Amino acid sequence: MPELPEVETVVRRLRPTLLGREIEAVEVLDPRFCTPASPERFEGSLSGVTVTEVGRRGKYIVVALSSAQTLLMHLRMTGTLLIDPVVVQGHERLRLNLSGGVTVVFNDPRRFGTGHLLESADVDSYFSSRLGLEPFDRDFTADHFFSLTRDRRSPLKNFLLDQKLVAGIGNIYADEALFRARLHPLRMPRGVTREQAAQLRLGIIDALQAGIDAGGATIDDFRDPDGAWGAYQSEFLVHRREGQGCPECGNVIVRFKVGGRSTYCCEQCQPRPSRVKVSR
């Protein structure tokens, strides 16, 4: 699933292309994309409006419109937004024709991606009930992050994936951040010291920034709007590196399940808590 760095990569490419352009025609090719709105209502609301801003909140793409509405899109597992695609693989769900001859296509083989229209005045309240602060927010301080850990009863890996606590982190960057902080994915948050929480906060920020700098990670389907793959997968420290040597100590990286998610770590650098068993 595209995570914060992948979505940020998409937004940075979309912004200069979409800003100031009028949406001249809209075609919903899969009614499931805009549920619960009907395709006809969705198309009618977007047609003839101008894009005034393109941004991101967590893993959401946020497109503000001249109609005082905002289009929220979520790529989910396999969604991609492509600008003027030469070839689309038969999984188009939304097509936008914009002024200047620009076409944007939402392509999604597994059909989990979504698009919703909200009144712009309601966007903040929509996100406040769904997302915590994201790591690049200036209020995401060491004290704030430490406070989040105090009463959590699920392992650190699950804690990091909870979007209501920290927005934007998924499976890749949780593994990479925990390795940077030298914390085992099965450690309990409430047992983490203030210093360890501060290190994990820095590990999160560093991992996410590295992903952004590399244009995201392509493991399965992720592509940027020009169709290019990300490069961060070649820089993974532990994620997807089962059986390989740890870049720090040389110990073999292991894989196990946490909350049903494949999880990777070096149990030399990230000591497993006592009396904790892993599920392979």
TrEMBL record:
Formamidopyrimidine-DNA glycosylase catalytic domain boundaries: 2-113
Residue ranges constituting the FPG-type domain according to the UniProt record: 237-271
Keywords, in A-Z order: DNA damage, DNA repair, DNA-binding, Glycosidase, Hydrolase, Lyase, Metal-binding, Multifunctional enzyme, Zinc, Zinc-finger
SMART domains: Fapy_DNA_glyco, H2TH
GO-annotated biological processes: base-excision repair
Pfam family membership, one: H2TH
Required co-factors: Zn(2+)
Catalytic activity, as annotated: 2'-deoxyribonucleotide-(2'-deoxyribose 5'-phosphate)-2'-deoxyribonucleotide-DNA = a 3'-end 2'-deoxyribonucleotide-(2,3-dehydro-2,3-deoxyribose 5'-phosphate)-DNA + a 5'-end 5'-phospho-2'-deoxyribonucleoside-DNA + H(+); Hydrolysis of DNA containing ring-opened 7-methylguanine residues, releasing 2,6-diamino-4-hydroxy-5-(N-methyl)formamidopyrimidine
GO molecular function, one term: zinc ion binding
Transmembrane regions: none
InterPro entries assigned to the protein according to its UniProt record, in alphabetical order: FPG_cat, FPG_Glyclase, FPG_N, H2TH_FPG, Ribosomal_uS13-like_H2TH, Znf_DNA_glyclase/AP_lyase, Znf_FPG/IleRS
PROSITE patterns linked: FPG_CAT, ZF_FPG_2
Assembly behavior: Monomer.
PANTHER family listed in its UniProt record: FORMAMIDOPYRIMIDINE-DNA GLYCOSYLASE
Family in the record: Belongs to the FPG family.
Identification of the protein by name: Unannotated protein
